Amino acid sequence: MIRILTPAIATSIQDQGRFGYRMRGICRSGAMDPASLAAANRLSGAAWRSAGIEFGPGEFAFSVTSHGTLAFGGARR
């Protein structure tokens, strides 16, 4: 379990999105970088479609409140 202390700009929980609903007016949504989310999920032992925390630029601070595995992924600056 983690506790977010300071969220960065545009912090949100994202998954791989929804498929097959466009004809009903529902967009796919999901993570901005679905390949990185799937890779981080695989590294941490989670199912590839599990949700993750997505955050933009700025300070992001968190504390870990119990044992577990974290994986970070995404684009480099």
Task: Characterize the structure shown.
It is a single chain. With 77 residues, the chain is of the alpha+beta class. Helices cover 14% and strands 19% of the residues. The protein has 1 helix and 4 strands. A two-stranded antiparallel sheet has the order 1-4. The longest helix has 11 residues, at 34-44.
Please mark out the parts with pLDDT under 50 across 5 or more consecutive residues, or reply none. Answer: none
Overall shape: globular
Give the overall average pLDDT.
90
- Helix fraction by DSSP (H/I, runs of at least 4): 10-25%
Structural class: alpha+beta
The sequence of SSEs as H and E is EEHEE
Reading side by side through the largest sheet, how are the strands ordered? Answer: 1-4
Strand content: 15-25%
Whole-Å distance between the termini?
28 Å
Helices, by number, come to: 1
**Biggest sheet, open or closed, and with what strands and sense?**
2 strands, antiparallel
**Radius of gyration using CA atoms only:** 14 Å
Could you give the count of β-strands?
Answer: 4
Structure summarized in a few sentences:
The protein has one helix spanning 34-44, and strands at residues 2-6, 12-14, 52-54, 61-64. By secondary structure, the protein is α+β, with helices and mostly antiparallel strands.
Q: Helix and strand layout, with pairings?
A:
Elements: E1 2-6, E2 12-14, H1 34-44, E3 52-54, E4 61-64
Antiparallel strand pairs: 1-4, 2-3
